[in-house]
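Section: Multi-chain targets

For targets with more than one molecule, the full set of components is provided together so that the structure can be written out for the assembly as a whole rather than chain by chain. Components appear in the order listed by the source. The example entry contains two components.
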Amino acid sequence: DAGITQSPRYKITETGRQVTLMCHQTWSHSYMFWYRQDLGHGLRLIYYSAAADITDKGEVPDGYVVSRSKTENFPLTLESATRSQTSVYFCASSHTGTENTGELFFGEGSRLTVL
Amino acid sequence: AQKVTQAQTEISVVEKEDVTLDCVYETRDTTYYLFWYKQPPSGELVFLIRRNSFDEQNEISGRYSWNFQKSTSSFNFTITASQVVDSAVYFCALSDFTGGGNKLTFGTGTQLKVEL
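Its structure, encoded as tokens over all components, is:
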């Protein structure tokens, strides 16, 4: 079934370790996004990508790295995890062109705990 | 810069009551889209509605209705005859096409608790 999937769904790691959250979509959407959700802040944009090999910073990019070598994949890496990066991470994608209304299609989320 | 304000952090109602969730936005764009998403306790984000800035007609979908007023930059969401299954966090969001990107700016969410 087509959709957007994230892995892992749950991850516990320690401060200083590298963590990669995976995101895969089967719609061939050009745009992909990473948001983090924290109590009192709603969802905040970390990074987004307009197409393969095109990425840009969002509101809270510090401490994160992204890449997009293929249209369908958009991994998010925490190179040296910190406790402040404990959060729920949502990947999303959206249409482009005439279908572009800004509507995002979200994955189920990845809950990351940094000890 | 885009901004979405959901001043109500948490609302508690008794089942069958009507409840309105407020959303106020700021944008310099003349064309924009507004959204509501629902996040039930299971955690996923569920799309509820998209509204084009040129269409100020109110919309009703079953027990849900939305009131879009450009004059006050508001896009409020009303649930009529609330049910326990409506308990969730509700997010209002605004399209952000600045920098050529295609992003959404979210409010901080309103936690709705519907009790028996």
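Chain A has a mean pLDDT of 92.
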